[in-house]
Amino acid sequence: MSDPTNEPDGAAGPGDDRLRAALALYRRNGDTAGLRALYERSGRPRVAVPGLAEDVRAAVVHAYAPRSAPSSDPRWRFEALCTEPPAPVDTATRLGPAVTALALAGLGPRPALPCHRYYDGAVGDFHVIRYQDGREEPDLPGELFVSHLGPFVSGDDRDLRAREALTSAGFRWIDEFTGATVVPGLDVRHFGDWRPLCVDVLLFRWHG
Hints:
The protein is α+β, with helices and mostly antiparallel strands.
């Protein structure tokens, strides 16, 4: 359940007033069964995000909807409260296969670094793996980003070797097109502002 003290003041955003009223009641009585019954009677309402894969959606919903701003569309919180979250995966368990896949592809991966070390104190939800991308500047290695929210990775879309190595190891590559998709109606705090963010920022989010 989200903590209202960590949320900004704001007018109600778009969405069904019945859902907002039900969420307000839930915050008082914690009646998940009643909330889920309304969710089913209402046809499992959800915000449309064309082209967004279900596993990516689930990761975003359960990571951010519970702590989104009150101005967010209430369907996001309903979805978070009434659907099963992704199974938790230990970060180390995820990083090992990624590094191994890159090594087997001959890409010389360096040890994965957590965001706060890579960006000198920044807080984030991902690790960075530097590797030899075969370009003309060996002192500027390629960068791959491994999300903590699920089996999601991102990097240079042009480097098919890295992409194929990681997708073959079971990761979903978040390409530039998918990463640029904005998740509407979900107001998330980022660098002091509350606003809808794109998939790339949500999966590989950091701030100073």
